Amino acid sequence: MSTIALDKEMNPWEAQAARFEFAARKLNLDEGLWKVLSSPNREIIVHFPVAMDNGRVELFTGYRVHHSMARGPGKGGIRYSPDVSLDEVRALASWMTWKCAVVNIPFGGAKGGVICDPRKLSQGELERITRRYTSELIEFLGPEKDVPAPDMNTNEQTMAWIMDTFSMHQRQTVTAVVTGKPIAIGGSAGRRQATGRGVRVVCMEALRQLNMPIAGCRIIVQGFGNVGSNAAQLLMEAGARIIGIAEYDGGLYNANGIDIASLVEYRHRNSSIVGFRGADAVNSADLLLQPCDVLIPAATENVITSRNAGKVQARIVVEGANGPTTAVADEILAEKGVFIVPDILANAGGVTASYFEWVQDRQGYFWKEEVVNERLDEILKASFEEVVRYSQTHGVNNRIAAYMLAIDRVAGVIRQRGFYA
Ligand code: NAD
Questions:
Q1: What's the pTM value of the predicted model, to 2 decimals?
Q2: Residue among 47, 48, 46, 80 nearest 64 (CA)
Q3: Looking at ligand 1, which atom is closest to the CA of residue 194?
Q4: Does residue 173 lie in a domain region?
Q5: Residues 151 and 170 placed together within one structural domain of the fold
Q6: Strand pairing partners for 281?
Q7: What pLDDT, in 10s, does the model give residues 342-377?
Q8: How does DSSP classify residue 325?
Q9: Which of 155, 184, 213 is the last residue before a domain boundary?
């Protein structure tokens, strides 16, 4: 395969567009709606100065893309990374539209990013970048407009700074402008573990669907961050054996299962999983291709591509990350009979808990963690069943079923609202 072909395959916007077009054709979506939904509603690019600790001024570039606001305020994370691109943010924004529609919560899709390398920035620099980026976007944000959340390399602290900056401009505290905040300033119980919890729910539903027991089920997880570590911990508690963990700086393998609680502690102390004694050190890329019952890519995009999909030995792939499988790899996995729980369903636990946080902030009434978890499980279970039923009725795979269900829901709302011209 040529480099250009692989580049195209790995462009997340192209990957999103390929699935959208396939699903839209299956739905016989009319031309007008097709045009509206195949491109983002609004793309904001900001270049802003920040005073660095060494006294120099650096210029940073940030994006915020609103894909669709048809079903409600924009919802989607903000990521900090040296290789954030507009195409990536566009793709992530449209995935948010489809994700919110799959789990049927009243949000549209948005996403943001700032090109920066957080590992090379001090806390003070990160705070100034966050506050200035927020102020550049100020008129576009708000509980009824666009509600950011954490994503790669952003966290509760980042959300606290955004909430504070927005509130200073409004001259009043506005907690519902972001989700994924610390609990003390309007965050929700259960939000931190929610994406991993959702991964566990859909993983167990997929196992049930294929008549495979959770007890002793062999699972390999890529990415030991928020999503991967929580999913691994919760699945281990449910009886599964986490036999492999792949991180960017090395992998771990133990056929008898890795003790996830000890690994979380080890990672906390050492900032890496490398050197952990409860498993053998292995090559990360090879780990994804080892025999297992469930593979959970929970790190980043484009990890299962035309280059390695043929060698995947998992029976089930649960996409904790956004966009881990390319459209070409999808076809290869389908031929092998791999059961995929697509990202827009598998990692929707995070946005579902974000929805709960937004509701609680607006009500000023906070729920117990058991209530959050129970409602989360209920929504994820029902959405899984709906997607699988849709896939069986329409003779399409789970990913296309999830897209069709979502596109149909968003299109239905736009049809009812009509076009304002
Ligand atoms: P995170 O930054 O907490 O963790 C990501 C982990 O993956 C890190 O430990 C990092 O070292 C590792 N990693 C990165 N690239 C890797 C690679 N190439 N190989 C192996 N390991 C690698 O991020 P997160 O919040 O856990 O998000 C992970 C994925 O899940 C992203 O795709 C994100 O968009 C998606 N997601 C996150 C949430 C959420 O609530 N946090 C919700 C929905 C989707």
A1: 0.96
A2: 46
A3: 40
A4: yes
A5: yes
A6: 252
A7: 999 999 999 999 999 999 999 999 999 999 999 999
A8: B
A9: 184
